[in-house]
Amino acid sequence: MKNRKHIKYRFAVCIETDDPDLLTPHKIYRVLPDENAKKSNYVRIIDSEGEDYLYPAGYFVFVEFPAEVEQALLCVSKEKQEKIIKSLKIFCTIRLY
Description:
Layout: E1 10-14, E2 28-32, H1 35-39, E3 42-46, E4 52-56, E5 60-63, H2 67-96
Antiparallel strand pairs: 1-2, 1-5, 2-3, 3-4
């Protein structure tokens, strides 16, 4: 298994979607490396639900940002993930009672 600390994150802007619940046009998404997907003209994207899935590469325009911007985008993603996890814990606790 690859060490995720060494993964270079890339970003893409969605320009087309067939499922607006998972992808939003004009939104920036993280791209994870996936050589097998690339061979089939797909990319592995972390979608709006925080899950990584394969999408057609034609749905995106790939962008490069300065390191400071990439770091800020990654931090925002982590904060959103923590809020979602916290919300789910509260929801599950309420549902158990």
